[in-house]
Design a protein that fits this description.
Layout (H helix, E strand, L loop, with lengths): L2 H17 L21 H8 L3 H8 L8 H10 L4 H10 L17 H8 L6 E4 L5 E4 L1 H6 L13 H7 L1 H6 L3 H16 L6 H13 L1 H6 L11 E7 L3 E11 L7 E7 L2 H17 L5
Antiparallel strand pairs: 1-2, 1-5, 3-4, 4-5
Length: 284
């Protein structure tokens, strides 16, 4: 991503954060006639203790420097979450250095063995572009058969937004997809010079109307523990808790593990696992 593109991204991000706040949120008087959704630029500038002209230039993507102190003030004024604040600092060139992007992402034999030892609990490892690099048998049984997919389609974002079966399988797909997109934006911001990552974002805006509609909203969210509900074609409703773990020594690699959220789901997962084992299992 070029410096011009970064400044444009920063400007768009600030505008969307400003638009979601109302004057009453920040103790300002509400007037009946307002042409602008959310706060006005001059209101943000006043609350953040910066000049109106300077802040206007910032939202116009002009080439100006922004100090850490000013970014802190803007983050407080716009009520940014911790993830949004980190994203703001990255766009303004005040965040941590980008993670070095290895030429080839590698999953060690130990990590593959660890995945397999999760038994009936689905688990997979994804890289910096959210490509699925390794998985266990349960992930193929429950989520999708990664082994049967072409390499270029083994990508969580691509699957969520373009694969019809993937969409049908997840209950409340829209909320889940918006959350994943916000997490993907936060994650991908650490690799601004990755041309293949940029190409993925561009391609997704052409392939998915929902991605194209939601991406400009600039929602940012960190990956958190959560729960997903899936409608499995054989097992029916599955309720799964999930968490994501950073792999030490490989900043771009993350492991996602699903566990049954209740006893009924645990029994269904065990049954699926046993049936596949007896039948010879899926390839992985």
């Amino acid at each position: 991503m070029t410096q011009n593109e970064l400044r444009s991204e920063l400007a768009n991000f600030l505008r969307t954060r400003r638009a979601r706040l109302s004057p009453t949120d920040l103790g300002l008087p509400h007037t009946a006639r307002r042409k602008t959704a959310g706060l006005r630029r001059e209101e943000v500038a006043q609350l953040a203790c910066v000049g109106v002209t300077w802040y206007t230039w910032l939202e116009q993507g002009r080439e100006i420097n922004v100090s850490v102190q000013v970014l802190d003030s803007l983050a407080r004024t716009l009520r940014l979450s911790a993830e949004e604040k980190a994203y703001l600092f990255l766009l303004a060139g005040q965040g941590p250095l980008q993670h070095p992007a290895p030429q080839q992402e590698h999953v060690s034999p130990f990590l593959q063995k660890f995945l397999e030892h999760q038994g009936s609990s689905p688990a997979y490892i994804m890289g910096r572009r959210w490509d699925v690099l390794a998985w266990n048998r349960a992930a193929c049984q429950v989520i999708t058969n990664f082994a049967a997919l072409p390499v270029e389609e083994r990508n969580i974002v691509r699957l969520i937004f373009t694969d019809k079966e993937f969409r049908r399988r997840f209950v409340d797909w829209e909320a889940m997809a918006q959350r994943i997109l916000a997490q993907f934006r936060a994650s991908s911001s650490h690799y601004r010079d990755d041309e293949q990552l940029d190409a993925l974002m561009t391609d997704m805006q052409h392939c998915s109307p929902e991605f194209a509609c939601w991406w400009p909203r600039h929602e940012v969210q960190g990956r958190q523990d959560g729960q997903k509900k899936l409608l499995h074609p054989q097992a029916g409703l599955l309720e799964l808790d999930h968490s994501t773990f950073q792999i030490d020594g490989s900043p771009g690699l993350k492991m996602v593990i699903y566990l049954p959220a209740n006893e009924e789901t645990a029994k269904k997962l065990e049954l699926l696992y046993k049936q596949e084992t007896i039948a010879g299992g899926v390839t992985y």
